[in-house]
User: What shape does this take?
Amino acid sequence: MAVVFGVQAWQTRHVPSGTAPELAFTVLRPDGSRSNTTLADWRAAHPGQPVALHVWAEWCPICRTEEHSVTRLARDWPVLTVAMRSGAPETVARVLAQRELPWTTAIDARGALAQTLGFQAVPAFVVVDADGHLRGASVGYTSEIGMRLRLWWAKLF
Assistant: This one.
């Protein structure tokens, strides 16, 4: 267990502590519409509750194993996925449609959003609590129960 926690601590060492950084991005919605927004504005649509950020890439095989967990999680919690280095909005939209993923997705064609969040690899997961603080960051495969527990913990404490 110490090794697992040590590896996670090392992998998330660049994730900023405290308030989530301000991020501006193009968001692609499940209905195919797009708009420019910020993380603060997106969070404002979900007042008083924690939200999840799931960083993934279309070329990442581990991300593929998490897809159904993220989809189920998004039925119960606000989840913003971040398509890191996965191409232009059209490309990401095509991937989401092919894989039947009804996700709200921020386009991160150059990886700048992931880098600002402190992630250098995918998949990555982090909770932004109701006060706007980053909590419970992880890199690598995260189980659905692990995602849910992080959100639940952020809601309680």
